[in-house]
Amino acid sequence: MKIYLVGGAVRDELLGRPIVERDYVVVGATPAIMIKQGYKQVGKDFPVFLHPETHDEYALARTERKSGQGYGGFICDFEQSITLEQDLFRRDLTVNAIAKANDGQLIDPYHGQDDLNNRILRHVGPAFSEDPLRILRVARFAARYDHLGFTIADSTMKMMENMVSRGELKTLTQERIWLEIEKCLADGAIEHFTTTLDQLGALTDVQPLLIDWNVQERTQLKKLLMRLPHSHPHNKIIQFCLWLYDTPSDKLKALEQTLKIPSRYAVALRDFCEHKACFIPSVSAQQLLTLFDRIDLWRRPERFDLLLEIITFSQYNNPSLIALIKEAAANTRAIDVQAIIAAGFCGAQIKTQLTQQRLSTLKTTFN
Questions:
Q1: Which segments of the protein form a coiled coil according to its record (predicted)?
Q2: Is residue 231 part of a domain?
Q3: Which CATH number covers residue 54?
Q4: Which domain, by its residues, includes 61?
Q5: DSSP letters for 109-120
Q6: What is the pLDDT of residues 291-340, one digit of tens each?
Q7: Whole-angstrom Cα distance, residue 189 to residue 78?
Q8: This prediction's pTM
């Protein structure tokens, strides 16, 4: 039984990047051996085990053969005789097919180190075309490592183009597509991801709202994202909204349903797309009151705060105007309902009077 560090951890170590997670492949073992040594089995389709102390993932060396269409149509063979080289051959890219032994020796049968040095993303073998998810993964890696000068090998681009033309991406679930998009948002290079998919003719399958993607769109988004700190607590949500800033209101609901995006992304995008037009110098008091009502400033001020953050990093950024709107929001929220009741208003009159006072407060600032 031998254990090797594999995949992203080896790749990023060689690139001098921080290692986020460590995955291991185990050669010469069986599920029974792993369990006896205290590992906890978590895989169903193929044996993956968690280390009893570190909880890192350890997978038995395996081969795969296609048994159906799409991401999950594979039959795995994890016999004890499977070699490390066989396991590495099933991986997507040569740079992800490098293993590291406990003594530090690198096992690199498919020349991943050469491709790392030459900044090339290249598929390992013909089995690459059996898994459409790899199209999104390669686009994501190309985006992540673009600043290091990485490009996709021509042969790999051609293979992915053929996969797209055959409709392979249509076999992926929307949940899997969203997972790759969210990972790309975490990397902070969604504009490069989109451009790669556009070059492959894959945007219609992944994000049909961006089928008119062009150099101008990419340049504008990249410029905006350069101002957005990676450490910002809402980094991914802000990127997502800037990415889809031009989505028509009547398309928002369809987007939420088809892409299956989490509600925090959906609400933020809806607020931005529907209300970004309010952040102009000529905005009226009535427009702002409508904005405050629709985003429920009165009960959910954090929703308004997030909208301001998105606007701050968008092409609609106007610091003095944003500060003024923020002040107006605070002033309208400070209006005391109890004081209105104490003044003798009751029933529907309370709401009417509250609205009038809020509007009057806003007019003092904006009219």
A1: none
A2: no
A3: 3.30.460.10
A4: 1-111
A5: TT-HHHHHHTTE
A6: 999 999 999 999 999 999 999 999 999 999 999 999 999 999 999 999 99
A7: 36
A8: 0.88
